[in-house]
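Lab channel / #folding
Pinned by the channel admin:
"Please post every new chain as: sequence first, then the C-alpha cells as a reply. Keep commentary short and put observations after the output so the thread stays searchable."

First post following the new format, from NK:
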Amino acid sequence: MKYTSSLLKVALFATGLAGIVAEYTLSTLATYFLGDSVFQWTMIVSIMLFSMGLGSRLSKQFENNLLERFVWLEFALSCITANVTIIVYTFFAIYGDTTFIIYLLSVLVGLMIGMEIPLVIRLNERFQSLKVNISSALENDYYGSLAGGVFFAFIGLPYLGLTYTPLILGCVNFMVAGTFLMIIWGEVVPASRKKLVGLAMLVLLILMSSGIFSDTIIKWGDRVRYKDRIVYSEQTRYQKIVLTYGDGDYWLFLNGHQQLSTFDEALYHEPLVHTPMLLHGGAENILVLGGGDGAAVREILKYDQVKKITLVDLDPGVTKLAMTHPVLLGINQNALNHPKVQVINQDGFTYLEQAAELFDVIIADFPDPRTVDLGRLYSLEFYYLCYLAMEEDGLLITQAGSPYYAEQAFECIQRTMRAAGFKTLPLHNQVLTLGEWGWVLGAKNQDQDLKHTLRSRSLGAIETQWLTNDALTLLSAFGQEVFAQDYKEPEVNRLHDPVLYRYYLDGRWDVY
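Reply from TO:
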C-alpha cells in the first residue's frame, strides 16, 4: 500500500469539514422552508448524529477492499452533498412540501458520514497502535469540523450562499476520493478499475452540471414559492432577502416571510410610528430597533423637532439594500441616507446592553416571535433594557403580531412589558396583506392616561398616506375576545422561560 497514515488524517480532516457543513446546510434549508430555527437545527443535527451512529454500525459489514469501498463512499457523498439545495428546491417546486426530502437527505448523508471514521481507523491500524489510531482519527475529524463551522459562518453562507456552498462540499469529497483512487490504482483489478473510473466521470459530470445549472434551478424554485417576479435575491449570513414585483406592487421577504408590501405598508408603519411620536409630543432622540427597510425612519423624519435617529438592525444586507436599491429608496424616500440618521448593524439586545445615551422614543420593529431566538427581542430582560435606555417621559412601541390570530402571544407581549415597568396601551389596525395586526405601546411614566391622551392628539401638518385623526382614535378600540374559548392567561416571556414563541405558533393561523 502506498497510502500513509498522514494522508488518512488529512482525509479525515477534509471529510470532517464537509460533514459539518452538510449538517449546517441542511439545517439552514430546514429553517428556510419549514420555519422554527431552533427546532429544525436541533432535529436535523440530532437525526444526522443518530444516522452517523447507524452508519458506523453498518461499516462492520465491510470485510475487505476497505480503501476501495472508502473511495466509493466519498464519490457517493460528493454526488449527494453537492446537490442537497438543488434537490430540496426541486421537490418544493414540484410537490410544494420539503419536509420529507430534507429529513431523508439528513439520514442519507448522516449514514455515509458515519461510515467514514470507522473505515479510516481500520485502514490506519497498520500504522499506529489502537489508542493512538483512535485518538488521532477523532482529533483530525473534530479539527475539520471546526474548520467547517468557520467556513460556513464566515464564507459559505454569506458569500457563496446555499447555492454554491454545497458544491464546495461535493468537490471536497470528490478530491478525497480521487486522491485515494490514484493511490490504489495499481492494486485494483481491471474490472473494478472500469467501474471506479466510470463512477468518477459520472460524479465529475454531476458536479459540473450542478455548478452550471444550480442557480437556474434555485431561481425556478423561488419563482414557484413567491409567485411574483423576483427582482432581487441575496443570501446573507443571517437570512435570505427576496424582493418581488407583481400587479404593480413590490414585496419584501426575509426567509420567506413578508416584511412589507407597497400595496399597504403605510397601514403598518404609520400606526407604528405616529402613535408614540404624537403621544410624546416633543421627541428629539429616537431609537429604531429592526426596521432596516427604512420605512419607519421615513415616517419619523416628518417631525421637524427630531434631531437624531439611531437605527439598529442586525443584517447589513438589509440596510445596504434600503440605502442603495432603487425600489427600497422609493419606498423609504432615501430615509437611511438622511444626515439625522445613524445606521448601526448590531444585535438590538446587545446594543441596548451597551447603550450610553437615553432616548425619547424607542420603536421595536422586529419580525414576528415565531422562534426562541426572535422571542428574546420580546423578553422581560429586553424590555427592561429599553426601560433603562429611556428618558423619564420616554415611550416604547413594539409590533406585537395579531391580537386575534395569536391573541395569547399579543397579550404575552403586553404583560411582559408591564412586568418590566411600563404602562401599556394595546393598538391594532387592519393591514390588508397581513390581516388584523397589532402593536403594544408602553410608557415609562405611569401617571399618563395613554388612551385619552392619544385620542386627543392631532396629526396637524404631518402628511400621511392612510392615517387620519379619526383613524387615530380607533387604533386603541377593541371589541370582545374572538376566540374566548381558546384563551388562557399567558405567562411573562423571559430568556430562561421563552413561552412567547409557543403562544405564537399555537395561534389561530388556520383562519389567517
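NK: The CA atoms of residues 266 and 465 lie 6 Å apart.
TO: also worth noting, The chain has a mean pLDDT of 90.
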